[in-house]
Amino acid sequence: MADRQRTAAVVLAGCGHQDGSEIREAVLALLALDREGVAVRCFAPDVAQTGVVNHLTGKPAAENRNVLVEAARIARGQVRPLATLEAAEFDLLVCPGGFGVAKNLSNLASAGRDAVGIPDFERVVRAFRSANKPICVICIAPAVLVAVLREGEVTIGDDEGTAGLIRSLGGTHVNKAVTGCHVDTARRIVSTPAYMYGDAAIAQVCKGIDAAVHAALDLL
Q1: Does residue 1 have a pLDDT over 70?
Q2: What is the pLDDT of residues 110-135, one digit of tens each?
Q3: If we measure between CA atoms, which residue out of 219, 216, 209, 189 comes closest to residue 25?
Q4: Yes or no: is domain 7-218 CATH 3.40.50.880?
Q5: Which of 49, 77, 170, 171 has its CA 20 to 30 Å from the CA of residue 116?
Q6: What was the pLDDT predicted at 2?
Q7: Structural domain spans, the chain
Q8: Cα gap 62→11, rounded to integer Å
Q9: Whole-angstrom distance, CA of residue 220 vs CA of residue 204
Q10: Active-site hit among 15, 95, 136, 139
């Protein structure tokens, strides 16, 4: 890997922690990758958003939004349709959290243990897994990853409800602090809780994401 620049595909699910990608988690992941000298390309599904939330009031908003268009807010316009993502072009897959991951990249929010990913997300995840390339998942994204693979050893922190859901999906849960991460070396999956700890300080979330990105790159 020292002969060329490492590359990462970052999958976004919109913009905003209640109905898209968690903005802080996405930005911190992008920053961690940049600090490691990784070339990054962002992707998001070109689909209608599953519900829009007013982030000031926390209540549903009567609006229609597109996930790709919303993700462009985080990516400064540099985002491509998820349908164009090919695992062969990247060394690493990264997926920040946010409720949009459970609503726009999958139906985990509504289907629970019967959840599946949207077709393009399932295709991408399985392609990276088949190629034995590292996958780094943050916050609720580990649960969605397990829903796609029906296996995996991950952490979402210490929330027993979500840990139980992961077990029902076929995965194994390991409790970790917000500043830590868990490495499933057999499957090359790295996960970190981030804002699954809702009261976490941004500095703590940053440490966890830094650790996860570093661990994922070490797997290369």
Answers
A1: no
A2: 999 999 999 999 999 999 999 999 99
A3: 209
A4: yes
A5: 77
A6: 53
A7: 7-218
A8: 26
A9: 25
A10: 139
Residue 71 near residue 20, CB atoms below 8 Å: yes
Could you tell me whether strands 135-138 and 92-95 are parallel, antiparallel, or unpaired per DSSP bridges? Answer: parallel
Q: Position 130: which residue type?
A: S
Question: To the nearest whole number, what is the mean pLDDT of the chain?
Answer: 97
Tokens of 173: 């849960």
∠ Cα 137 142 56 (to 5°) = 85
Per residue, what are the HEC states of the chain?
A: CCCCCCEEEEECCCCCCCCCCCHHHHHHHHHHHHHCCCEEEEEECCCECCCEEECCCCEEECCCCEHHHHHHHHCCCCEEEHHHCCHHHCCEEEECCCHHHHHCCECHHHHHHHCCECHHHHHHHHHHHHCCCCEEEECCHHHHHHHHHCCCEECCCCCHHHHHHHHHCCCEECCCCCCCCEEECCCCEEEECHHHCCCCCHHHHHHHHHHHHHHHHHCC
139 part of the active site = yes
